[in-house]
Amino acid sequence: MRRILIVGSSGAGKSTLARAVARRLDLGFLRYIWRYPGRSRPRVLAAVAADAPELPVVRLRSRRQVRRWLDALPSR
């Protein structure tokens, strides 16, 4: 893989980030990301449930869900 597309505003460090990602991105990492939902997520959730059953697990799947969750947190 030779091309990485990073989108953002001017001066935000896109080209620096793209070079850093390109250096670290390999097939093994892409496989991990692709397989995470089916392989790793169940193990992570099981480990959390076993070690800290009182810890709530919050899965946020969209920016809207993140905003709503953050808005619902008590202010400091």
Task: Give a verbal description of the structure.
The protein contains four helices and no strands. The relative contact order is 0.07.
Give the amount of beta strand, in percent. Answer: under 5%
Summed up, the helix count is 4
Helix content: 55-70%
SS-based class: mainly alpha
The total count of strands amounts to: 0
User: What string gives the helices and strands in order?
Assistant: HHHH
Overall spatial form: flat
Q: Evaluate the radius of gyration.
A: 18 Å
Low-confidence region ranges: none
Instruction: Describe the sheet with the most strands.
Output: none
Whole-number mean pLDDT = 85
Layout of helices and strands:
Blueprint: H1 14-24, H2 27-35, H3 40-51, H4 63-72
Key descriptive features of the protein:
4 helices; 55% helix; mainly alpha; 76 residues
Summarize the structure.
This protein has 4 helices and no strands. It has 76 residues and is mostly helical.
